[in-house]
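Posting for a labmate who doesn't have an account.
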Amino acid sequence: MRDVGIDRRVFLRGVAGVTGGALSITACGSGTDRTTSGTRSTRATGTLVVRDSGGVAGEAKRKAVYDPFTKETGIRIRVVKMLYPEMLDRIKAGRPPCDVMDTNMSDLLLFQRAGAVEELDHDRLRNTRNAGIATSLLTSYGVGKEYWASVMAYRTDAFGGRRPESWADFWDTGAFPGSRALQSAMDWPELEFALLADGVPMDRLYPLDVDRAFRALDRIKDSVRRFWDDGNAPGVLLDRKEVVASTVWSGRLTRLMADGAPLAYQWNGARRQTNGYGIPKGASNVDAAYRLIDFAMRPEVQAGLARIYPLGPVVPAAYASIPSTAAADLASSPGHLQTGFDLDIDWWIKNQAPVTRRWQEWIRS
């Protein structure tokens, strides 16, 4: 069972329902009755500490989420950047470094299994009710809030006008010649792309056939120039023509493309994941944590973030106010739901150690 899969039919029905505009947003449970929910009628003071990844995405969250939240509630947001191992050590020692964790849902599941996250009271999250959010994102350990994806990126001037349309094309260095880049072991190894290239149907990927995946990877290894270990690296490699195609986290090329770089995404076979909010065990400002999480799930807040940084909303009603040009870069847009798949967190957590070890050995071999 997948923890963060999108129910495509439910989500698409929700998106279709927003075509009527603002009335549909209200009908989809946007939490517009903020007097009863307490988010606009009650102002507070103090500081809420939030862990996020910083960078350009962090700047976008400051503008679209944190500052509007502070303006409405009076609660200031202080951000800390910290990786999973250090956060877990601090929580287990009784010194949680934050009140809210903004991180991948797979990390939140690991925190839950380590007894390091508070069990959420969903009655305190009114904006998630009847909002069309996939039930798999409303867990006891976290609330999924935005989709992102690992996708293919390529130089549009590299193949004589032809464009790769699948992972099979990415693997086909005869028809699409040139150097490639793949992700290192900084996230789940990209075995799914190898299997798709080898002909495995997208709806039959899991459980992954690891041996078959590595046999497929062997066929392309001589063309892999770099194994990138930084989210900005694929854009640099492509822009400098060091490679002609690479895996990349969606959104990381948007600025380069806006500046005229001849780059494009290919969304067929995109591997979706979800970021979410969780509350660490022993957090000192739980009430404010719930208020921020609930605030961030409003359709207008989700849309505001998506307009300035390409993270896909989990609330279908958000798409009512997202331009089609921006929606084209979002992992949860209707156009991309049918062409990608959801990473199976349970499978990866169960198999992480041996598969990652084998991946690292393969890279070094």
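Reply:
Got it, the structure tokens are right above this. Residues 19 and 320 are 6 Å apart (CA to CA).
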